[in-house]
Amino acid sequence: xxxxxxxxxxxxxxxxxxxxxxxxxxxxxxxxxxxxxxxxxxxxxxxxxxxxxxxxxxxxxxxxxxxxxxxxxxxxxxxxxxxxxxxxxxxxxxxxxxxxxxxxxxxxxxxxxxxxxxxxxxxxxxxxxxxxxxxxxxxxxxxxxxxxxxxxxxxxxxxxxxxxxxxxxxxxxxxxxxxxxxxxxxxxxxxxxxxxxxxxxxxxxxxxxxxxxxxxxxxxxxxxxxxxxxxxxxxxxxxxxxxxxxxxxxxxxxxxxxxxxxxxxxxxxxxxxxxxxxxxxxxxxxxxxxxxxxxxxxxxxxxxxxxxxxx
Amino acid sequence: xxxxxxxxxxxxxxxxxxxxxxxxxxxxxxxxxxxxxxxxxxxxxxxxxxxxxxxxxxxxxxxxxxxxxxxxxxxxxxxxxxxxxxxxxxxxxxxxxxxxxxxxxxxxxxxxxxxxxxxxxxxxxxxxxxxxxxxxxxxxxxxxxxxxxxxxxxxxxxxxxxxxxxxxxxxxxxxxxxxxxxxxxxxxxxxxxxxxxxxxxxxxxxxxxxxxxxxxxxxxxxxxxxxxxxxxxxxxxxxxxxxxxxxxxxxxxxxxxxxxxxxxxxxxxxxxxxxxxxxxxxxxxx
Lengths: 311, 286
Known about the structure:
By secondary structure, chain A is mostly helical.
């Protein structure tokens, strides 16, 4: 008798549970619908049509014709500039990616050590390049190849340089200049997310840390701060990957296009060259496809690496 | 319990504070230098723009470039106030919609078990890494099919659902303890109420940060390929048209750059100072 009562009770509960789950899910689908409808229309559908374009000869004038892997054969076997672009992109990403990521975190943390209003001021100072947008003309002024260039004028006046250095057209300097400008702009979304994350660490964590015998900033950073920042550090990592792999584009704005001897040519500028100048959209899509693949691999590797420490 | 010191935190010494301050000031000067230079260029009279050696300050500062900018702007076929309205309208719509839509979707993806959740999370992470030169063409095709090219919809709708906004909110909401949500749920609160009354107040730094990203992004929308009607163009497009007319306009271009910087900077200061004020008091996190 008692057994039967119990099973009835469970049955009833299960039914209620299912109803409740459904009711719960109705609300959830309502919550995600506005976002995902827009996301589907303006992101997923365009992405799904553009991915296969790399396998066609799409040129904006005729209907795209399927050409199989021929774009990719040309890229890797015939296009020497593309191989140069891959090399530059990797150099650029390997240098700017880790440096900018570490800067994002260290600077956000140092700012967090300051008293209240100073935090806002310094966050503003370091995020200002992102807010200022495209002030490439000012960078051109700084690195201008004639003696009107600020860099040149000062180097000559101080006797360091003998004559004007062609910062933006000498193949030896282009990559260096691009890296400096990229690092200047690198404290973007990842940096702000880390700042916000630091701001959200509850004060009692620090109090508990102090009670457990934390003596200095370094210990506090390792035992209290970093363990509380996993999701923000992951966000920043993904952001820095995307910006360091795609930002080769600043070369196009800053220097002549294409750069001397393709010294600053990256996968992004190569795609721009074929897409927006030669209108060989199929080939350009194939280039972007390769970049996408490289970024997926980088993302996977970084997640593996960070996942070890953060989870 | 130790008595509380006046410092907010426990680690670190006064000397360390000063060292950090000096380091940040030095790095900060490097960050600000190009922006300072842009501002200085905009108040130099044109004969000073091409001096040798170039000066890092204006010898005879002038507002001539700004006056020229205003004159050019007020002699346009479409009244300039219309462009200002376009930009402000687009920025507000995109920012507000992005905040509401991505926050609610992020809550669902971070905290609620429902069929399809895993797949949607994966899609967001993958699209974050996707860049393509043909994407805007495909967006154009989609919008042309919908018949929204050359309307306000073309410069608002595509910019609302960004993978980055959702990803940011999801990372922050994921940190909240499940117990907080379960408690509200047992009290009979629906998902929508939990999202807005329980979750959002606890991730204030996150959505204030998203607000900065969203506004900054929306302010830079140019609508080059989607808007042809002069009366619908936003300010950045128009200022670029004004300043793209040769060396004689170098000063005006500098003035335009400075003017364009101001609104995102104001929004930033407003949001960031509130972020700094939110110092989480209790242990809400896992």
